[in-house]
Amino acid sequence: MASPYDGKAVAKWSGVTRRLVDKHPLQTKELVEIVLAAWESIFGFKIGAKFEIGRDIFPKPQIMGFFLHELIPLEIAALHPDEWRGEETASDKDIVYIPDDKYSIEVKTSSNPRHIYGNRSYAQGSTKGKKSKSGYYLAVNFEKFSKTNKRPRILQIRFGWLDSSDWKGQAAATGQQAHLTRETENEKLLTIY
Fold first, then answer.
1. How far apart are alpha carbons 57 and 146 in whole angstroms?
2. Distance between CA atoms of 104 and 98, rounded to whole angstroms?
3. Would you tell me how many other CB atoms lie within 10 Å of the CB of residue 43?
4. Which CATH number does 10-191 carry?
5. E-assigned strands of 14-112?
6. Residue ranges of the domains in the chain?
7. What is the pTM of this model?
8. How far is 80 from 76, CA to CA, in rounded Å?
9. How does pLDDT run across 19-34, given as a tens digit for each residue?
10. Which of 21, 45, 53, 120 has its CA 20 to 30 A from that of 5?
């Protein structure tokens, strides 16, 4: 599938992003409400007989990201069971729009206050039988737990479209991370919270 940004100057990217977001079946207000509800629900988890996240257990950012990654699709599917579901196969995005896969969404979370990252495979393009790295992305940045911050917050929620070519792998052969350029993050992901 051709990128919606093909042939467009960087100065035009934000307009393309706005149009893509506007025609998506999920409204940005609803996405924000779902992400915030998923985040709040994490703090209601009981682990074991009586231990709570944020009171007794203070998970690492990867665990908090995992919870969001699982809860956001569940929340959307619960609200719209005939239209949305979570990932079921390796070729599925994280959140699948049943009527038309082009609106399916990848979820990226990060405890970095401003940036999101993918693993190195994101910079290597798609492989047969695996999910496409191009499409809609929901990016969520959140605070980490610390000695002084027992109740971290969602810092930023962004929504937009990324192409597989937007992901840049680490230069080191052993690098495991892919990142986005500043202009890509600023112009292709619309801040909705």
1. 12
2. 8
3. 13
4. 3.40.600
5. 46-47, 51-52, 84-86, 95-97, 105-110
6. 10-191
7. 0.92
8. 6
9. 999 999 999 999 999 9
10. 120
